[in-house]
Amino acid sequence: MKLKGRSLSTLLDISQNEFFYLLELSHKVKKEKRDRIFPKRLINKNIALIFEKSSTRTRSSFVVAAHDEGANAEFLNRNDIHFGKKESVKDTARVLGRLFDGIMFRGFEQKTLEDLIQYSGVPVWNALTDDHHPTQALADIMTCQEKLGNLKGKKIVYLGDGANNVAHSLMIASCYAGMHIVICSPESRRPNDFIIKECLKINKETGSILEFETSPMNAIIDADCLYTDVWISMGEEENKEAKERIELLKPYQINSEIMAATKNKNTLFLHCLPAIKGMEVTEEIFESMNSAVFDQAENRMHTIKALLIATMQD
Annotated catalytic, 133? Predict the structure, then answer.
């Protein structure tokens, strides 16, 4: 697969075959890590980690993945660089592209990421924007493969805010994987129309199914996996709109009643974390035997490592 030098803005940037290649490589590097094998494929590579939004899993995953492969990761937050303020994103990108072999961006606007890709001249990876979260979706599908085996036709139901970045990337990834994905959300929080259109194109090639439902009880029957995310994004906590959204999404909480209604005692529970227990999911479900959230969190590192290797290895 010719991914060297490529950026990852959204999962639509890669083909289905490239998607599966990244997953296969993820499983390989996870086994290497378990066997204490460190091939150091990225020695003398330097990676800039730009954080407009803070994170536990993303920062830790990129740092550990880079270190395991012999690369250096430099953390840059909003106080470290004049990003889009005293210096334009375009100029910052051209400077960082001269100094680093790759750039990770975790922030707000997709446009900022696109500018980094356009002007830096090095691979740029989307570690979360308001519209997409592709590295999370890679870890989600890797976890489903580990727990559910062959994913063709497996039913995954996302409950909650269908208009957010996690739902968007999960839709694309699930369609690539040939799954039956249901986005269960209020009508006002449906996913982006463009992403829906692109997923329907993928479905024609993969045989996957994409459905939308407003009723949790209708959506979850025979689900192999239930997935949710926080209802309020970072920085929105005090917004009036955020409080209204919480009220709107209360019927979409994953709890014991919802889990039992799947009629599948082995239904997997996933959450990208951090979770607000008692809001989008109850403590009981989060800590249950069905929960794979910490396998999912670990897999962020393995899938990120695969992405770094695939796009930067000489």
Answer: yes
